[in-house]
Amino acid sequence: MRLTNERPYAKPEAAAKRLWEIIQKIEPVHGRTHVEKFNGPFLFVDMATPAEYSAGMNILVERGFCQWHESGTFITLLKETDSHFD
After folding, report:
1. Residue 84: inside a domain, yes or no?
2. What's the first-to-final CA gap in the chain, in angstroms?
3. Could you name the domain of life of the organism this protein comes from (predicted)?
């Protein structure tokens, strides 16, 4: 008997894919995408956990999809395609 439901973003790959889908829908301002525009929907609409968010973002950064600004308040997109997640 399972006492908890399966979490859709428990796998970092799934979290990264969903984050990338959200990020691509956002129009960058001066080449930057502000964090609150994608972490809000991921955490509060999709009901993901902070750990799932962190794991997904780490994959996106490691694979060169985006880069964090040193302030941590926005990212810069480095790739425009999502072919890796298909």
Report:
1. no
2. 34
3. Bacteria
